[in-house]
User: Fold these one by one.
Assistant:
Number 1:
Amino acid sequence: MTTQTATQPLGRKLSRAQADAEIAAIGQAVLSGDLPEDAGRRQVAEIFVSSDVGAQISYHFRARSNQDMVDLADSGRDLVLDKLLNDAVFYDFNKADGRKFSSWVFGMMLSAKPALEKKHRIVQDRYCPVESVGEYFADNQEPEPMFTSTPKVETEALKSLEPEADVFEEFADQSERFLKRYRSREERIYVCAQFLHRKLHLPPLVRPTDAAERLSILARLREEPKLAHRSLLAFYDLIQGREIPSDIGDDLLALWDDLSFTDVKRLLTSAGAKHIAVVAEAAVMQLLIPAKTAVKAMQSNLKNMVTSNDSTQWKKLSKDLFDSFLAKECEPASRHSPLWNSINGDEDIHAKRQILAGEFNTLCQQVIDFSGQPLGETVEEITGVLIDIWEEAYHRDNLSKTFAEVIGEGEGPTETQLCA
């Protein structure tokens, strides 16, 4: 790696996972001597500013207004940049090796949060300009250096992580026809996971793009029922800069990457281990096939995303992409089909689906090269759009009926009703 290839040009918006990956590569370049440390710090700072990591700082603050939230988040970002660029001890590339940069950021914010909020309130009450960022840590709250080697367990905090309500059973009990309609384990898991996401205001988990990785995670989750809960507890520790159990792999931790610290606490305190397992399994299992009419609607929605003179070429490309997506991400047939067992066990069908799935990345590149980039600039963005189309179709075909039964509304529940 050279100093010219460690980062890409700014102007893009990086996800938390992308930022962590690029900063890890910069750290390796610094440690190997291919990149001077001061240049590495500047590049890390550039990625931080252009990523979602900085934006998510605002989740950690309580403020009187949206403007106060913005001001506090700006102070937090300034603090991170100050420590990153000027404090080699506090952000040490050697200690950071193999760890996530975003975890360091969130750990710093947890340590600095009380002092930042206190200073902001004092300045606001006196109607004084906000002072420049300095040492925002209280005298009795000096933060630990990045990734301390001494494990620190918040025993009292962990004791408080008991479920307030059994939302899974609550959902099943309120819908007597639930078990009759959703006969397979996969259907029940997906529907209940969606219910939990809506009830607890959780963003989607990060779905691995590699099918083999998803299957590996799914097998481990089913082999150890409490693994999802343990991985979320580890993520809870990780975003505070603490050491975590060695048997929790990065692939499991990555599932929770898009959850804020508040989301993690809400999930841990509002749901039990089996509910967390449901949410995790739903993120990695094969997507379910909706009814044929819904599948046709999905394909039509994708085709209609281009209506220009290139629509004829797009029609074929979108069909090929859609077929490959179904083979890569979805089950081979509906669980309700009388032909499910024969289709699922057919070796010829399985081989054809593998071939179709193997074409997905190549087709994504053709979509990226297509005029206007209708589905995005990366394989991940394209996959996300396709999953959104799938979710809309599956929800319309299945979930709206179930949620209507639970709430008792003909057109399904509102967000207020679901989260009451």
Number 2:
Amino acid sequence: MKKLIKVCLIAGIICIFVGGGMTAAAAVLGGAMAIGNYEKSYLWSDHWMDVVDHVDHNLERWDHTWDEPDSSHDDPSLAVSEANRMSFGDIRKLELKAGVGTIEIVEGDTNGEVQVAFADDTFYDCFREDDKLEIKLGRNWKMTDLKSHDKRGNIKITIPRDYTFHKVELEIGAGTIEADKIYADSLEVEVKAGELTVSGGKVGSLSAECSAGSIYCRAEVAHEIEAEAKAGSIELLLAGSKEDYNYELRCRAGSLEVGGSVYEGMNAKEKIDNGAGKTAELECSAGEIIVNFES
């Protein structure tokens, strides 16, 4: 990709000089004179390789800068630190809106508290309101200024074992969220361009939205599922069987796969009534949704 950019830039500069030379010759000497003195009009061509070499040298420096990792992002001191840990009791709702970095959600012995440890405690705003804990990217940071692997965004959230939240909301911009298990009455996950993984748990309802990244969720769902893939990928591994759900499927230009059955095509819609007590509404715009089951 970088070689293509380099070639295009060099070619563009050459075209500018060629066009400029021809235009100047035509304007100053007249059409006939410019043609008659073609060789004189292109005396600059004796030096065009110098221009190319100069551009190529600077592009090589650009390549090196592009590939070189930002040392401030890889500083070992930016690992999640116990010194930057905060503890909260009686939390029933968890809302996480992360931009970059790696966010881990694990179970542990926390004496009933939710513990949050940051790599950089100035990177996020973390506060509680009644029984709700909110973690959001700080106001001084913009997603356009950050890289997905920026370790300053690393967080480790430790929750009590088998702890059930009323509601959990997880959103990631361009980084990664990895959750071991989540137990909640309601789980909402959203990925814009990153990755999100929930490896287990049990929820009452599940809502998943993916714009351009990927979502993987393995869970037992008690009531309903809503999933929308705009241009990314959603994969669900659900406890039970395909017949446990009634389905409303909508596929614009992507692909839906439910228990081995594939539904795809332009503006395809289908309703499946299994006489079940659970519902699944799946919509795919240009990505894919894959739903499998395990006993």
Number 3:
Amino acid sequence: MWKRIGHIAGILVGIGVSAAAVWVLWKQIQVLKYDAVVTQFHDLSLSRILLALACTAGAYLTLSVYDSTAFRYIKREMRFLRIMLVAFISYAFSHNLGFGAVTGNSVRYRFFSQWKVPLVDIARVVVFGGTAYVLGIVTIAGLLILRNAQHLALATNLPVSSAYLIGVGAALVGSVYLVWSVAKWPTISLKGVELPPPGLGIVTVQFAAAAVEWGFAAGALFFLLPVHGGLDYWHFIGIFVIAYVSGMISQVPGGLGVFEAVLLLLLPEDITRETIVAAVLTYRAVYFLLPLLVAAALMVTAEVTIQGRVATRWAWWRRQKRRGRAQNGQTG
């Protein structure tokens, strides 16, 4: 019963956040000067775009740490290049299409099963890696929200005290995970998969990866914004995390619309709306669309390779079968 109530509450919160974002975004768009947006696109220098691309590459590389620690957790060897390939494709799809449990994990199953990883181990990698990813980003987000509680209150129309409570609650999630790893008890069952506590070393690496990934993801947008007084990187990353988390709460793929609305609401007024819109659209292309296109190309290439191997094996089997029949005919 409580699980059902929680599910319904989550949906209602997502709808509420999305509706508020649409209203804010509509108000902001109405006063946009579209010629100025085009001008801001032209003013984006190549060096700023290259820095955004470098941060994007760093973020996706860091995301592979979760799958890597998951294989370390189940004590199974897997080449890091393979892990990096699968993690990149999985996260590129789930970031853009949403429903990570379906999109990203389907990719993992497709590749890992081809590399002879048993189904039970794939399930443990998926559940542990996915849970660690969520816990990591929630914990670091909680710490950053605590530092920027007033911005969250403004973005969500919540009292500042409630914003602090959200930050504390999110940070405590990570504390529970840390205590569980240190206590080494109990073994829990999640989605039918038995998970004993991980070692402290694995948890430390995961939290570090979460912090680095947030830093790279925020940097990809920060470098696309012009330098203005009053907006340093540490101030910006707090706003970025609140915008990103708001998009996650909305359950809209990629936080589309929600992310933009919160940024327009919270970024300093000396950065024009047109500048923000141009930067965010470029960020969407660099951080979301480009990785999706690369991931799709890699997926198609991998599928062609896999199907080619299947066809080769099938042709070999047919040749062996014909050869066996011919030998039987000669013997008869």
Number 4:
Amino acid sequence: VIDSPLDVLWGGTTPTRLILLILLVFSLVSWVLIIWKWRELRAVNEQADRFVDAVEGARGLLDLHDALRRLEDSPFARVFREGVTFFSDLRPGALEGTRQQEGLTPTQLDALWLVLEKNLSEERDELSHGMTWLAIIGSVSPLMGLMGTVVGIMNSFIGIASQGSANIAVVAPGIAEALTTTVAGLAVAIPAVIAYNHYASRLRLFVTELEGFASEFIGTLARENRL
């Protein structure tokens, strides 16, 4: 006899219990990812604030380079460090002087942009870890619930056929399984979908900020006549 949704898990049919078990695993994985990404993006946001303060307080490329070496590792600092390192490789000793007599060639400037874009892409991919699983869980869980609905209704019809009647005692267990799996699928999917869209929006904002910082780096080189 099914008196509560939990009874479906313990006393339901094997297909229904399997579906609920899969949804339970999805839910656990989803919440682990939600908490992990929340903490990660919060840390990145704090790092971005400190990085902006360092950029605004720097009087030039040399000051910015020194400030970045004092900051903790972050996506923003890594992009700038890679840009500065590549620029130094192109023009050895250029960072030590206040002016650069010989500017970068168009090919070298394009190469510098490619290095910055490559690092931007790597940081975006790094920050996107776990997002794919949130999207998968958010899209698959309702389908798992729908499968449970179909299984539950099929069990109701099988019960009617075996008992030769359609009284409530025969139909109720299958309907209970159908509704329970539907609710479970939605309960797993809704937080995952909300989290995915929220985090995707924040990631787009971070990537936009990174692109802006990369442009600011090139602008700083231009202002100091290093290009």
